[in-house]
Amino acid sequence: MIGDVPNVETGQEYSTRRLAHEAGVHRPLQAGICGTKRTGAESIVVSGGYKDDEDYGDVIVYTGHGGQNGAGNQVSDQSLDDSGNSALVTSYLEGLPVRVLRGYQGDGLFAPAAGYRYDGLYRVTSYGSKLGIDGFLIWQFRLEAYDDTPAPPAAQQPELPTAPNQSKSAAVPGNETPERITSTVQRIVRSSAVKRQVKAWHDNRCQTCDLRIDVPGGSYSEGAHIRALGSPHNGPDTTGNVLCLCPNCHVMLDAGAIIFEDDLTVIRGGQPAGTLRTDPRHTIDLECIRHHRDRWRQ
Amino acid sequence: MIGDVPNVETGQEYSTRRLAHEAGVHRPLQAGICGTKRTGAESIVVSGGYKDDEDYGDVIVYTGHGGQNGAGNQVSDQSLDDSGNSALVTSYLEGLPVRVLRGYQGDGLFAPAAGYRYDGLYRVTSYGSKLGIDGFLIWQFRLEAYDDTPAPPAAQQPELPTAPNQSKSAAVPGNETPERITSTVQRIVRSSAVKRQVKAWHDNRCQTCDLRIDVPGGSYSEGAHIRALGSPHNGPDTTGNVLCLCPNCHVMLDAGAIIFEDDLTVIRGGQPAGTLRTDPRHTIDLECIRHHRDRWRQ
Questions:
Q1: Chain B residues touching residue A258 (CB < 8 angstroms)
Q2: ipTM
Q3: Which residue of A232, A250, A297 is in closest CB contact with B61?
């Protein structure tokens, strides 16, 4: 499952991977990434297995899966065809939360002293490839804690001996938590289950302009409410009120630059511009189409 | 200015509009909306001047400006050509915060008992037109408090007398604050000053595909960092590292579906696909172009 596991609090500790597995926090016993391209990544383990990883607490730079020998060295290129890596791409494209489990083998301030600790939900805010320390291609994913994810506890570091004339404040900082790294603003918003259903029916192809945005490792679309949620529009959160659109058509729908006739003709700039593509599994709620049209009657 | 006024806390009260004016919280002495189409709306006053308004505390349905006679009745249609209304459209399209001042004349639980109260920052999450109570076209804007905006204090309501056999819990709720109305997820993210500069230079026209998304009352584009901010990419937040893109090209840039050669040729799906459009005022940082390209070398 994606998201928090019922009855498991952030900060929960497990002495072994098996116990974390049994709790449903991270199901595989070996793999660092749980998930598939189709579902997205459920969870990852941050445990120092990749030397290019970086852990800032609320920001993690996580190296993808693959290409290692038994000694933890990269010996070949990583690929987005790897199921775990493509799962993290889907998490990015769908804006889905990823559970983070930190292990005692991890480097830096935030690894638990022993065993494993569930540190709550993060989201993937960027990714990309580079040549890793060992000279092979690696994929890296930036994960950021959600605003309401508690900060992971930082380990106490032994205080460094200071020379008599050396100002203490100039020494290596002790147990201070690093400041939050400048956050990248996430332009992708989380897809709800209703939106994911509609996007799956249409295979991410825009119902208005027929575009599908293909990117390395996946494709991208947005679920768009026809009749907006909340007052004053009060649209329902149902598949009949959601369209699969490219981001451009989504902006135009929300700001009234496209409206639809009852026969699903698309009206753009006052002129007919094709017909909304439909699918037998996806019944569009005409009442919502009419409400949206009325909202932009000008 | 857009955003919080320095040294003014949310909850600050003013006995008159003039004092709020002098504090810089809401500068006009009469108008309900402060701002222009170019700048966006700085602030609004919620004071019951329009009978179609709705105030749920953290969500406000705010009727635009115009079309009233002196007695507060609509006597003609409102228009997005009105400067205040188009300012709120810009606030929506740019994702800019709007200061909310509530006045004692307002209806409902959240009006202050006397004078005016600054209730912090809200954002415009949707808008549209409809026939108002008086039968003329009005424009309405949904504003939502940011997650970190304190909830406005709700007035005490007199407790309703309950019949002896009537369960108290079935009575009209007393001074309880209404629950948060289902939030619409905002797909538009706030533009920083750097991004707004780049978008202004390019008049919201995509530098990659030349599209400008025109909507009623404005046009829309996104500022996109070429080299991503934060670890591991560590791009600078400068105009040289920002492009003006349509949302579709923004997704493709961030996920590596388009990269650029040093001569600014756009490469899409491995093939040249035009050239990045430039502007004499906008010098693009080639180091960022190269870093982005390296990130998607695969």
A1: none
A2: 0.85
A3: A232
Q: What is the pLDDT of residues A212-248, one digit of tens each?
A: 999 998 999 999 999 998 888 999 999 999 999 999 9
* Closest residue of chain A to B77, computed from CA coordinates: A298
Query: Which domains can be identified in chain B, with CATH numbers?
Result: 13-153 (2.30.280.10), 193-295 (no CATH)
pLDDT digits (tens, 9 = 90+) for B129-150: 999 889 999 999 999 998 889 9
Cβ atoms of A60 and A91 closer than 8 Å: no
User: H helices of chain A, where?
Assistant: 17-22, 83-94, 193-201, 247-254, 286-295
Which run of H or of E encompasses B19?
helix B17-22
Q: How far is CA A163 from the centre of its chain?
A: 46
Q: What's the length of chain A? A: 298
CA B200 to chain CA centroid, nearest Å = 17
Q: How many residues does chain B have?
A: 298
Angle between helix B247-254 and A247-254 (nearest 10) = 150
pTM: 0.85
Do the chains contact at A228 and B184, CB–CB below 8 Å? Answer: yes
CA distance A29 to chain B (A): 28
Which among A117, A129, A122 is positioned nearest to A99, based on CA atoms? Answer: A122
Give B88 to chain A, closest Cα distance, Å.
Answer: 12
Residue from B85, B184, B186 to probe the interface with A (highest A Cβ count within 10 Å): B184
